[in-house]
Design goal:
With about 400 residues, the chain is α+β, with helices and mostly antiparallel strands. The protein has helices at about 1-10, 15-25, 35-40, 50-60, 85-110, 125-140, 150-155, 195-210, 220-235, 235-245, 255-265, 265-275, 280-295, 315-325, 330-335, 350-355, 360-380, and strands at about 75-80, 160-165, 175-180, 185-190. It has 17 helices and four strands.
């Protein structure tokens, strides 16, 4: 409904009700926060004039507010810092929903009939069960036991929506979010400002939320289970035992650096996984953590995972849709700022194409266009009724 869309776009822009009220006031449109809230709750219906000004202020075409059949999102929960505000959470969900909705539209246009292939959810009875479910998820996607070069690429290729949050909040208040679209399409949101290994772990963690049914667990225990799933999914137990050995009395911290380069799991997570699998003892793990702190590696590890884990599917589809004239440059840039830059050089502008035609053909075309516009405006009073712009709101 119109009100749902107004709220979604406002939140996606990171604006409060008062922010919008203040912006509209500068345009000569007076409305209270309560009045705008009534619109968002579908308790009152805004006029077309109001929607036109609101759309322009928020940077969207008016038609966006009138679209039907919006997808339904069921969010599971955030992987975030405790200091993340409710306002920021709402912003992340609304922004992600808007981008995911656009991606689904492009999917239907460019890849009709394509189905999502996602592992079936299971109830874990123990952490050992989590290890088994993680292995089965890898088997479902035919990943074998080797390292996964790009987990994001794998997830997108099997129909999962992976969306980035572009915010640059201090100290990474937000890491990840997951849920379902229309109860059938999995979606994960990751922070674009995080390093590749963190994006990778977050995505694996969010896949864990969707694959593990943890209704019988507390929120804290569910997080433990999803952490274990992520580590197991990225580095199966047999692989780590082969890399480090069955049981180590002494281990060098930098061994974890080389494993990070290979498997894309952070040094800290690899050390924790070695402890969980009892490759190293608790006392060894504690000593390694102290060493990491001593060298400042808990804040920034000495090596990076070089494979880019940011999603590419939306970008690729936008470029294709632009090249084929399915989407306008302004709409493309609204979804992904800068994606249409340079595209004009590869296409002939319609006005230039018209000027290349013979004079008589140009005259016929322009006369026909003028006749169409005249008929459209003469039949649709809403296009000529500007009293809506002076309505009381």
């Amino acid at each position: 409904m119109v009100g749902d869309r107004i709220k979604q776009i406002r939140l996606a822009r990171g604006l409060t009700l008062q922010d919008v009220v203040s912006r509209l006031s500068l345009r000569g449109v007076e409305i209270t926060r309560a009045g705008l809230s009534k619109y968002e709750q579908n308790k009152s219906l805004p006029g077309q004039g109001f929607l036109a000004i609101l759309a322009e202020e928020l940077g969207f075409p008016t038609s966006v507010f009138l679209e039907d059949g919006l997808p339904q999102f069921k969010w599971h929960g955030f992987r975030k810092q405790a200091r993340m505000t409710k306002r920021l959470q709402d912003h992340v969900m609304a922004e992600a929903a808007f981008r995911a909705e656009a991606q689904l539209r492009l999917e239907r246009l460019l890849h009709p009939g394509q189905q999502c292939d996602f592992p079936s959810p299971q109830v874990p009875e123990s952490l050992s069960d989590v290890e088994r479910i993680a292995k089965e998820a890898r088997e479902h996607w035919s990943l074998g036991l080797g390292s996964i070069p790009s987990l994001t690429g794998v997830a997108e290729s099997f129909g999962m929506l992976v969306v980035t949050h572009q915010g640059k909040e201090r100290n990474r208040e937000f890491d990840g979010l997951s849920g379902w679209v229309n109860d059938e399409i999995p979606i994960a949101v990751v922070s674009a400002s995080a390093p590749n290994d963190r994006i990778r772990f977050t995505l694996a963690h969010e896949i864990g939320h969707l694959v593990l049914t943890c209704d019988h667990l507390s929120e804290a225990d569910e997080e433990v289970h999803c952490h274990r799933f992520a580590s197991s999914f990225l580095v199966p137990d047999t692989v780590l035992r082969e890399e480090l050995g069955q049981n180590r009395r002494r281990i060098a911290a930098r061994e974890f650096a080389e494993l990070k380069r290979k498997h894309g799991l952070s040094m800290a997570a690899l050390a924790r996984r070695a402890r969980d699998l009892e490759i190293i003892s608790q006392s060894q793990y504690t000593a390694i953590c102290k060493e990491f702190s001593q060298f400042g590696w808990r804040k920034k590890e000495p090596v990076e995972y070089e494979v880019d884990e940011l999603p590419t599917r939306l970008h690729q589809m936008l470029l294709r849709a632009l090249a084929e004239g399915i989407i306008s440059e302004s709409d493309a840039n609204r979804l992904m700022p800068g994606v249409a830059d340079g595209m004009l050089s590869s296409r002939v502008h319609p006005s230039r194409e018209l000027m290349r035609r013979p004079r008589a053909e140009r005259s016929d075309f322009l006369a026909h266009a003028a006749d169409c516009v005249h008929k459209l405006y003469s039949k649709d009073s809403e296009l000529t009724d500007f009293d809506a712009f002076t309505e009381e709101v």
